[in-house]
Design a protein that fits this description.
By secondary structure, the protein is mainly α. It has helices spanning about 1-5, 15-30, 35-45, 50-65, 70-80, 100-115.
C-alpha cells in the first residue's frame, strides 16, 4: 500500500507530515530500504517546525532503532535542542508544554546515550 502511493520524485506520500515519519518507521522495521531512503530524504529536507512534531518524529524513528547517525535524526535533534526555552521547557503548539517537554527530553536523552563522545544537547 505505502509503496503504491509513494511519489518517488517528491520522496513522500500524498498525506500529512505525520504520515511521512510513521511510514518511515514502519518501512524501517519491514526492511524496505528504498522506501526508507525516499521518506528519510523528504523528512530531512522538510523537518517539522514545531518542538512537538519534531519530538514525535524523533521518538517514532528512534523507537524502531532507526540509525542515530542518519541526517534526519542528527538535524532533527539539533533543531529540537535549539528550541528549548531558557526555563528548560519545550514550547507546545497545542496547549501546555508538559507533554512536549517530556517527549523532547526523552528523545534528546536517547541522543546523549547513543553519542557519549559528542556534545550533550541537554547541557548546552
Amino acid at each position: 500500500f505505502l509503496a503504491a502511493h509513494l511519489d518517488p520524485k517528491r520522496h513522500k506520500l500524498p498525506s500529512f507530515a505525520q504520515a511521512q515519519w510513521l511510514a518511515c518507521g514502519l518501512a524501517w522495521k519491514l526492511g524496505l530500504d528504498e522506501m526508507v531512503d525516499h521518506l528519510a530524504s523528504h523528512l530531512y529536507a522538510q523537518l517539522p517546525g514545531s518542538a512537538g512534531e519534531l519530538a514525535w518524529m524523533l521518538v517514532t524513528l528512534r523507537s524502531v532503532d532507526f540509525p542515530a547517525d542518519r541526517g534526519v535524526i542528527v538535524s532533527g535533534s539539533l533543531r529540537l535542542a535549539r528550541m528549548q526555552a531558557a526555563d528548560g521547557r519545550f514550547p507546545s503548539d497545542e496547549g501546555q508544554d508538559v507533554h512536549t517537554t517530556l517527549e523532547a527530553l526523552r528523545v534528546l536523552g536517547k541522543w546523549d546515550a547513543d553519542h557519549p563522545n559528542l556534545p550533550d544537547f541537554l547541557n548546552q
